[in-house]
Design a protein that fits this description.
The protein has about 270 residues and is mostly helical. It has helices at about 10-35, 40-70, 75-105, 135-235, 255-270. Helices cover about 75% and strands about 0% of the residues.
Amino acid sequence: METDLPMSPQLEQIHGEIKDHFRALANGFQKLDKIKDSNRQSKQLEELTEKMRECKRLIKEFDRELKDEEARNPPEVNKQLNDEKQSMIKELNSYVGLRKTYMSSLGNKKIELFDMGAGGSDPTAEENVQLASSMTNQELIDAGKKAMDETDQAIERSKQVVTQTIEVGTQTAANLKGQTEQMGRIVNDLDTIQFSIKKASQLVKEIGRQVATDKCIMLFLFLIVCGVIAIIVVKIVNPHNKSIRDIPGLAPPAPTTSRRLLQFKASERFG
């Protein structure tokens, strides 16, 4: 569809489809004024509602394409396209208001989920849509009871989910507490091991010092013993060597002639 606004081919195609739907909506509401049968009017309103849903989807698609091309367009072009989008939204809202007016005049209440605002758009399936005017009082009561039962079931399911969530949270908290206590015990064990290693290191050092002292003492004793043995050997080999003093208790016996001379001198002194 030709337009004065600078658009990409994709935007121009979507814009043309939206305008075609708006013309169909305008013609549909004009025909609705000429229809006298309430059932036919209700059917016509359903068709117009479906077209409005399609218009909403196209406007959202138009907005997504506009955001994708926003960086490539000049600011004044983006402003014009945004103004056009707002204009289409206002026109669609006018048709939504017109639809509500016709619904009120017919005295019909649809059981459906139809949201033309900024939120999500999930249209109710055609087979689930019923007109209140075509239902008896008993059917209305049964439908109300069914809706209440479904609501109660949904609440019960929500309660079960909440209960399960609480149980999972409690179990997780218990596991975390157990793991925290286990980590504390591990830290205490590590401290004990570290203290034991430190004490063992000190004990090893002390034993090493004692061993070194014992080795020194043994070495000195060995040197003393070696010296004594050496002196004894020298005295035995060379007993007349006066440079080496006699070891007490190890002096050699006096010669026999000297002993006799001493005995003779003693007898003369007492004779």
